[in-house]
Specification:
The chain is mostly helical. 83% of the residues lie in helices and 0% in strands.
């Protein structure tokens, strides 16, 4: 499983690049909420492409392992998001939690669900 812990780190780069794309490009064309929504969908797409390529190189041994990979990536993502967001980016805890409010149009929960189920789905498609 250590190789999948290491494989999570490029996902951070993808997520940060996606966030910069949202802040520098999408906000010029969309309102903040719409830019967030488009950015969430682009992250989901990029994540799928990344995992597709990753599993061509480092194929999991079973469907059960893909469930563990997804849960591992979910935990790493949430921990990183809150620790980096609060202690490095300086965002308040309230601001960080706002992205989880799907009733206000925030779609980040969909990205987290995808991070969790993506390994399973990609493995099923490839096998």
């Amino acid at each position: 499983m250590w190789k999948y812990v290491l494989a999570w780190f490029p996902m951070v780069i993808v997520a940060i690049a996606n966030g910069l794309f949202r802040e520098k490009i999408l906000t010029n064309y969309f309102k903040e909420l719409q830019a967030h929504q488009v950015s969430t969908l682009s992250f989901i797409l990029l994540m799928g492409v990344y995992v597709w390529g990753l599993f061509k190189l480092l194929q999991p041994i079973s469907l059960t392992q893909t469930i563990y990979i997804g849960v591992l990536w979910l935990i790493l993502t949430i921990v990183f998001e809150f620790l980096f967001g609060h202690f490095v980016a300086g965002h308040s805890w309230d601001r960080l939690l706002q992205d989880y409010n799907i009733f206000k149009g925030r779609l980040w929960l969909l990205a987290l669900i995808w991070v969790t189920i993506c390994p399973y789905i990609i493995y099923k498609i490839q096998n």
